[in-house]
Design goal:
This protein is an alpha+beta fold and 258 residues long. It folds into 2 domains: 1-120, no CATH class; 123-256, 3-Layer(aba) Sandwich (Cytidine Deaminase, domain 2), CATH 3.40.140. It has 7 helices and 12 strands. The protein has helices spanning 49-59, 97-102, 138-147, 150-155, 179-193, 210-219, 232-241; strands at residues 4-13, 16-25, 28-34, 37-44, 71-77, 83-89, 159-164, 170-176, 201-204, 223-226, 244-250, 253-256. Helix 5 (179-193) packs parallel to helix 6 (210-219). The chain is globular and about 60 Å long.
Amino acid sequence: MTKTRLYNGLLNSGGEVRTVNDNLAIEHPLSVLINGEAFTLTMQTPGNELELIRGLLFSEGIYKKKQGEFNYHIIEKSKENFISKVNLTIPLEEMDQSLLNKRNLLSVASCGICGKTELNLPGGELESNELDLKLIKFQEMFESMRLHQNTFEISGGSHAAAVFNADFQLMTIMEDIGRHNAVDKCIGALLNKGVLGQAKYLLVSGRVSYEIITKCFVAGIPVLAAVSAPSSLAVDFAKELGVKLFGFCRENRFTQYA
């Protein structure tokens, strides 16, 4: 089972630009139904879907049976033959109904999409303006963000998001155990101040998944830059929504994917 996909990018290193082909981890939505009713949606790398579902239900206390397999039916697959939707047939007496009805999964703590029952895509596209990559101060912005990561400095276990204006001035920085939470905190802070419209660059520590792209788009922030890699779905939707996406922004280099 293929777990990565090849994407073209423009690697800018020390002012020199060249085309690169990077293998990015595939991010694919898996919708789970139980007895015909929508239960949850999780973002995952294709492969071992049934093991994922079984482990998820067990670890969340919904289906605690340790032996035997539940009955399942694959309802939908993607054009790449990835499993997209599965219906499980499980006797009601074998499940914890109180937890099932709440759909309040522990796994949502680090994923803003996981736990929902369907994937809702925003409509429209950001206005496209050309960027002069030689003028973008990625390194300076990331250094500024790093100086304000107080929780990370103490714990080593938090993510950060920071927003800068067109003059590369820091507007806000937030930290959280979840990447998407840090982004939401930044957007909320700018909304409270009435200055969200001035936001030009959104920087995040770590990787970029689909959910971060959608939040950036909805907030109207045209440029998203990350310390680490984007996922396949992040690149796909950045291209579709008009978000300019940069990854591996470190040591005076970065790769543009969209």
